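TICKET: design request
STATUS: open
ATTACHED STRUCTURE:
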């Protein structure tokens, strides 16, 4: 018999809300740390672990300085464990830079207080993207402990759980390897309350019975491929935001006095991982692939806010890039350093708000059973404030920064257009208040069309990456779209669109090659809105009763109908169809399909107003593309995933999340689809409670725009206005980076400044970029002033699948020295800067890297 050593990770799960109002919930964790600090003195060998960095940060921000110092010292001494991950995040709804910042708050604290971390925990959320181990490794993390809750994740239920015979075996121990070859050692438990699960709250005898039964009968431990005599007990209590009980600690100590084995070690996560890696490292298996974005579908219960979150993340990133010009344009007075420091602090607060909105707690535990209760209403208002504040800060920082840039350029009246993307762009932008205004670049007027609301569509050309164009502005006569009568067809730039006369969906889409891209189906065509009602008490898992999973869902489907359609010409830009449609439950539904004279894609916009209802429902937008069995690649934060091929057993195949694009390709043909406002999508069919274990894509994709299927945490209903945009382009296999370039352009707008007038010329030229790099196979994940004020941090991702050294040169931002860093801005080795100013960042294939670019003060 094995002589087991069980490392007990005595953490309490963090919900930012759910069980009570958010601040009350966080105060429980602060009190747990108060108690843990006391118990490290009174209970020999006791170790507590703060599950996420938010617990530690909240404590330091809300306790007296001496208490905070005591906590920091206990972490240094190894008495209190702390984890690198900020909170328990929904990784599938995060953009690249937000995802890259998941350990940044912990890294910032580590740099400021002289701390280190090796491990991370993620609790409750049952699955993450396949790039999660790369993010952790690039942030300095070696070990990951996860405690997934398989709620609304049938394939992750243990065998016989919830009436299923095919299940997932727990626990799991493996190296989780990312696409770039980086890895973390991962313990994957079943749930997160092992303390109360094994009777720690009852007493030593009950602990002995339950632990013996587990160790002797757990199938994973009986398997031939389990050589280990050590295991990790995950968490202290089943309850979320639970007060830590001193009796549990006393019972564990008494158990140790009475029993020799199993030996229980009250340790930190890294203590377990170091032990098992030292003794069994060569025997630990390696796995690749994502573990399933099951809980992200709940975010579509607040679709308008989810769309705003996607937009705000990109604007926040752009505001950091614009700030790289501050050393060039900031007035040189005694207050300049403080102004820049204040703006940097405000941007840090902006990112914290956005991270908190991406955290998995959406609302109260009674959000569905009592949708109008004080807890439900107050918790959602608090949650939404994270988004409102973060989005407002991103917008203000970006707009103010663009105006500062504009005022530092040439004299006269003008506007600035800014491209925060990694590649030069020619694209249409919407200029606020731009109707009746001409914009000119080097004496050439840009094509523009006035819109009904006073804005203008403008075709911007060759805007440099991470850079701007300063344009001259003048008044001009009105230039509205040209009415072209009622029509069901539009042509421009080699594309032809034909609408279905019954539904208003796109029944035919052909490009310059004349090939049909729409296949006949039950869904009328591309951009067909499908409203699904019903499904209560069924396999959709809409209640807490798992016995109901055996019931097939009863779903009623309604599809949009055409009311009328008109065609408009957009002089110098293209043509569009403005389609009025009808759909039960949606008092207003207008679709706009735009084709361009010069741009190789089709843009679609659906503007809806929805009636709120508590009945179970979902809204999908169908895209039946003309493929048989295409390969489907999906962009995820910091990478891409091949559907099925890059998914672990038990991963979610009923819906997916995309960062900026989904690429369906078969043979020499391909279509790239982007949904800027709707990260969620399904393949082949609507979600009908199939809970697939495998999938073979058939070419049909559905934007999974709205649902209220959850029975807790997420919103019970939603109503009001929302907008769902899509971009479709034809893209054959060949250039691995092209989907990334086009997808980014589909989801991030070109940013325009407000109009300004300069009396005198400023220090900036009319066209510039923050940094220069010539490699079109890399994405600049983020570029920002360093937290400590020492230069800038640039994060680079390979999107071409080739290991190489990527060169970065000074441009508007000048630097003399460089060094490697982690994603959390911890310094590594120096990087040699060549005579031509080049600093080289080494990247693995599909890998991420970061560098600090700076000039010493004495050389500036």
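STATUS: resolved
RESOLUTION: sequence designed for all positions
ATTACHED SEQUENCE:
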């Amino acid at each position: 018999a094995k002589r087991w050593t069980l490392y007990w990770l005595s953490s309490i799960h963090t919900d930012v809300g759910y069980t009570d109002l958010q601040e009350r919930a966080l105060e429980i964790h602060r009190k747990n740390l108060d108690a843990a600090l006391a118990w490290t003195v009174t209970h020999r060998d006791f170790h507590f672990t703060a599950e996420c960095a938010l617990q530690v940060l909240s404590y330091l921000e809300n306790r007296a300085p001496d208490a905070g110092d005591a906590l920091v010292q206990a972490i240094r001494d190894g008495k209190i464990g702390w984890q690198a991950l900020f909170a328990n995040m929904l990784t599938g709804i995060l953009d690249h830079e937000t995802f890259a910042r998941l350990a940044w708050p912990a890294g910032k604290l580590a740099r400021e207080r002289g701390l280190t971390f090796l491990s991370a925990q993620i609790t409750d959320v049952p699955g993450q993207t396949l790039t999660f181990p790369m993010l952790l490794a690039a942030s300095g993390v070696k070990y990951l402990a996860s405690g997934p809750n398989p709620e609304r994740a049938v394939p992750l239920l243990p065998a016989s759980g919830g009436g299923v015979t095919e299940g997932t075996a727990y626990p799991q121990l493996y190296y989780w390897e990312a696409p770039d070859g980086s890895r973390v050692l991962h313990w994957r438990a079943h749930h997160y309350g092992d303390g109360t699960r094994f009777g720690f709250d009852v007493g030593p005898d009950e602990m002995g019975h339950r632990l013996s039964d587990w160790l002797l009968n757990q199938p994973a431990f009986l398997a031939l491929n389990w050589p280990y005599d050590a295991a990790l007990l995950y968490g202290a209590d089943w309850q979320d935001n639970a007060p830590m009980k001193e009796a549990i600690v006393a019972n564990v100590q008494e158990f140790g006095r009475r029993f020799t084995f199993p030996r229980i070690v009250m340790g930190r996560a890294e203590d377990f991982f170091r032990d098992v890696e030292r003794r069994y490292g060569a025997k630990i298996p390696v796995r690749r692939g994502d573990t399933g974005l099951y809980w992200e579908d709940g975010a579509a219960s607040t679709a308008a806010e989810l769309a705003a979150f996607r937009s705000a993340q990109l604007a926040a990133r752009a505001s950091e890039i614009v700030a790289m010009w501050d050393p060039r344009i900031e007035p040189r007075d005694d207050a300049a350093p403080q102004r820049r420091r204040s703006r940097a602090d405000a941007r840090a607060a902006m990112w914290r708000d956005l991270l908190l909105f991406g955290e998995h707690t959406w609302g109260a535990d009674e959000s569905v059973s009592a949708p109008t209760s004080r807890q439900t209403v107050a918790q959602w208002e608090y949650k939404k404030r994270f988004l409102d504040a973060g989005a407002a800060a991103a917008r203000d920082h970006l707009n103010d920064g663009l105006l500062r840039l504009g005022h530092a350029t040439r004299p006269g009246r003008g506007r600035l257009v800014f491209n925060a993307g990694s590649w030069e762009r020619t694209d249409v932008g919407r200029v606020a208040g731009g109707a009746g205004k001409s914009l000119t670049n080097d004496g050439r007027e840009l094509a523009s069309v006035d819109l009904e609301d006073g804005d203008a569509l403008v075709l911007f050309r060759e805007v440099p990456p991470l850079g701007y164009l300063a344009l001259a502005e003048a008044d001009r006569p009105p230039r509205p779209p040209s009415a072209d009568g009622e029509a069901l067809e539009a042509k421009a730039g080699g594309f032809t669109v034909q609408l279905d006369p019954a539904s208003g969906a796109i029944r035919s889409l052909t490009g310059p090659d004349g090939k049909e891209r729409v296949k006949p189906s039950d869904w009328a065509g591309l951009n067909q809105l499908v409203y699904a009602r019903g499904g209560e008490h069924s396999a959709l898992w809409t209640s807490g009763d798992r016995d109901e999973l055996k019931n097939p869902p009863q779903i009623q489907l309604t599809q949009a109908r055409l009311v009328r359609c008109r065609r408009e010409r957009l002089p110098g830009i293209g043509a569009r169809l403005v389609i009025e449609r009808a759909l039960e439950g949606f008092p207003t539904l207008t679709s706009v399909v735009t084709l361009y004279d010069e741009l190789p894609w089709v843009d679609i916009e659906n503007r809806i107003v929805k009636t709120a209802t508590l009945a179970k429902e979902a809204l999908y937008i169908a895209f039946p593309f003309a493929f048989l069995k295409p390969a489907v690649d999906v962009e995820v934060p910091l990478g891409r995933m091949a559907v099925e091929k890059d998914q672990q057993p038990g991963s979610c195949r009923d819906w997916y999340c995309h960062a900026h694009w989904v690429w369906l390709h078969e043979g020499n043909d391909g279509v790239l689809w982007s949904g800027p406002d709707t990260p969620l999508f399904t393949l082949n069919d609507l979600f009908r409670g199939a809970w697939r274990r495998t999938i073979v894509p058939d070419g049909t994709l559905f934007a999974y725009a709205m649902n209220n299927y959850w029975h807790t945490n997420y919103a019970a209903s939603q109503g009001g206005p929302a907008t769902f945009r899509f971009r479709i382009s034809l893209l054959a296999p060949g250039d691995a980076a092209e989907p990334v370039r086009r997808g980014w352009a589909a989801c991030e707008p070109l940013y325009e400044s407000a109009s300004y007038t300069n009396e005198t010329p400023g220090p900036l030229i009319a066209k510039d970029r923050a940094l220069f790099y010539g490699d079109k196979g890399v994405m600049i994940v983020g570029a920002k002033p360093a937290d400590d004020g020492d230069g800038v941090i640039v994060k680079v991702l390979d999107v071409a699948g080739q290991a190489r050294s990527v060169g970065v040169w000074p441009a508007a931002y000048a630097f003399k020295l460089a060094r490697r860093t982690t994603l959390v801005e911890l310094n590594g080795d120096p990087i040699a800067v060549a005579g031509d100013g080049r600093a080289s960042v080494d990247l693995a294939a599909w890998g991420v890297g970061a560098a600090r670019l700076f000039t010493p003060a004495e050389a500036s």
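CLOSING REMARK: The chain has four domains: 5-291, 296-470+749-758, 485-747, 771-859. The first strand starts at residue 5 and ends at 9.
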